[in-house]
Amino acid sequence: MGASIYRFLVPSKNSSEPPSNIVLSFPHPDLFATHQHPHFSNTIGRTTNRINNARLDNLNGKTYPLAENNGNNNLHGGNKGWGKHAWNGPQKVKRGTWDSGIKGLNGSSTGEREGLLYTLDSPDGDEGFPGDVEAKVWYFEGRGSKGEIVLDVEYEAKLSDAPGKNKDIEETVIGMTNHAYFNLNPPPPTSPSSSHFLSHHTATLATSTHLPLSSSSPGIPTGSLAPHPNVPLEPNTPFPLTNPLSSTARDSVVKIDDCFLLPPHSPETIPLDTRPQALQVLATLKGEVSGITLRVESTEPAFQFYTGLGCYVPPWEAGEGSDGRSYEGGDGYGHGAGVCVEPSRWVDCVSREREGWRGMGLLKKGGVFGARIRYVAWRE
Description:
The protein contains two helices and 26 strands. It has helices at 31-34, 249-252; strands at 9-10, 20-21, 43-44, 50-51, 55-59, 62-65, 74-75, 88-96, 112-122, 133-143, 149-159, 171-173, 177-178, 201-205, 209-210, 226-227, 239-240, 257-261, 280-287, 292-298, 302-306, 319-320, 326-327, 340-344, 362-364, 369-379. The radius of gyration is 20 Å and the shape is globular.
């Protein structure tokens, strides 16, 4: 479901101990479709983040109303965005690499690498969005030069050129990312899932520049840029994700749910397909208890950093999956159980035609959207 990341395993220092899964997840893939969760590791689309007033103006000469699933706004593609669709796959494929230096990613002498491909055909009118869109997600596993665990993710989308499709559609909007929640101090498999929490975590962000939000339209940028009040002004300065002096666990989590921008802060220069660009480090997370470090890199110009205060997953009962495999029940996940780093375009860019933001999320016939993310994890 949602071409999701089911597990991200980091080996233990002791070979006799099981590896640690650093993404919030379920004991069986079926639960991604049947149990309530806040976009766990889903592939997000047709757009990422929020669209102001849940409408698209001046697109194909029309106005398109969208689902209001976040106040008056549209969030992550609507009530049934791409994260709630069953994608086709996985299909084992070989594909060329954009760069080298990672074992298993730079492939053979032919420049190919082996990975998994998921595809989705999103029809015209899907959640109100115009145009038949063909989307693809590739996953590639590898190892870094020092044995780091590496997961490469590549996104691609285009308006379908199949016969009979998109006759009256010249353009649509697009945005894709992954919504994984990370916890680098995961409890052992025998402990309840609710013991996940962001205590003893530090984060380092590549920038403190973010899009301040409107007081009248929650989650929507004002259009200005400013340093974030809860992030160190100097880039790449570590800071804790919790405040130990707070009276309750939820209050202790540093409140961040904002879009951070990488320089040069020139929206009109951001290409629709960022894949040819070099990867940039967006954020580095460290779990002080486990010794696990996660580095998130991307070709995208921005990222949503979210400390999971709205995360809530109710308990689930033991059961049997569609494959006949049984799974144990769980206590669910609470507020602040994980942190998200969501590489993306600027929030609400598709509504900001006058400001020159729309181009980074405007997909026209013959055009191709593309983006890359790399997750690198290791244990000290």
